[in-house]
Amino acid sequence: MVTRRRGIVRPAAMAGLVTGLALAAATATPSASAGQPGSRAQGGRAAEAGAAAARTTVTVARLPGPVKLTWTLRQAIQYLPPSNHSQYLVVIASRHDAWFFGGSNLAGHGVPEVLRRFRGGFRFPALPSGLHSWIAAASAQSPSNIWAVTYLGGAVLRWNGTAWKTVPRGAWRAGTQFTGIDAVGPRSVWLFGGRGRSFAGAGSWHWDSTGWTRVRGIAGGIRQGSAVSARDIWAIGGIGGSLNALFQLSGGTWRHVTPGPLAGFSYSYVLALAPGNVWVAGSVSGVPKLAHFDGSAWTRLTMPGSVAATGICRNGRGGLWVVANSGTGHSILRQRSAAGHWSTTTVSASSANEVLACTLVPGGQAAWGAGKSAGVGGHGSAAAVYGYGSLP
Q: What is the CATH classification number for the domain harbouring 246?
């Protein structure tokens, strides 16, 4: 049996990991540098010796003086061997707790990985055995009711406040892909598996505490959703294969929404904050766009740059953080103020260090970011935690 171990690399020894990282200005899909996982039989985490037998933890020292309102690298986990490509792809947070989800060995036979920020420190909660691929989506109905799903195979996991447990699987086919999950109530969870270029989508499924029911029709093409409430969910997906459709669950029924201002949209992300505050990101004819719903009408908005957003989160001041990585050159986050003004924050001078997802810590302006950083000695990549502001 392989023992998972961890070594602490002190800040003075970090040169190979954070080369080019500007510490003073620091789906849900893996970075383009990582390949698709192979089709590997589930033999337990101990059998994944080459993928996740060990890890090296890089703890970044706090900067002296007042906390600067910039994105900084807070933690990097290098899962060994050194050639391993590791990333955190999803982050969720409550006021005093944060979770980072992703995987190690994303360029080979992937293994799901989870990191928890709790009481000022980072912890590695145990996951059930026999998992493969990586965690593609997660959703929290409460701090003691958190759900996650693996990208391939559809292993559904639930945190009950004490431990991660596997939820009985539905009748989906092995090897199909899952791309989204929304825990909208104590006994209500939506699972989405939009079709991809390499793998068949698993479709849309609903959990009612007794089992999974497949939802067919237009809802079958949903890729990612965002819930205002259990009966008001906005989602994006495809009709005919492309990400060309916007959906809403209203009154217990999914419907295809076709606002005039969103004509020609290819959707990449949706964030529903309230019945009168819904955001979608995407592009029109290759030009990145945002759109906003105020409860009565949609408005199309311009967005700087040439890359569509793949993530959005609140900034705590009535505006948004927008994740839009080009994969080349500087890694940046864009910020849209409540008044509609844009600014750009550099995360790193290198595309090897990227924030791939973000979330606001409730009650302030601090935010967590999940992503990747350059691997130790320039080999592979490390799963990385980024932070903005004064974090718990």
A: 2.120.10.80
* Beta carbons of 323 and 355 less than 8 angstroms apart: yes
Q: Which of 382, 374, 290, 361 is nearest to 331 (CA)?
A: 374
- β-partners of residue 298 are 293
pTM for this entry: 0.86
Question: Would you say residue 371 lies in a domain?
Answer: yes
Alpha carbons 388 and 319: distance in angstroms, whole number: 15
Query: Does residue 54 sit within a domain?
Result: no
Query: pLDDT class for 281, splitting at 50, 70, 90?
Result: very high
**What is the C-alpha separation between 348 and 62, in angstroms, rounded?**
17
Q: How far apart are CA 334 and CA 341, in angstroms?
A: 10
In whole angstroms, how far apart are CA 57 and each of 75, 106, 123, 239, 392? 7, 18, 11, 43, 19
CA distances from 291 to 2, 265, 315, 325 (A): 49, 10, 17, 19
Question: Residue 85: what residue type?
Answer: H
pLDDT, one tens digit per residue, over 245-271 is 999 999 889 999 999 999 999 999 999
In tens, the pLDDT along 47-76 reads: 333 333 466 665 554 444 445 568 999 999
Q: Which 8-state DSSP code applies to residue 261?
A: G
**Ramachandran region, residue 240 (left: φ > 0; alpha: ψ -120 to 50; beta: rest):** left
**Segment (H or E) for 147:** strand 145-150
Backbone angles phi, psi at 101, to 5 degrees: -125, 145
CB of 359 closer than 8 Å to CB of 378: no
Structural domains in the chain (count): 1
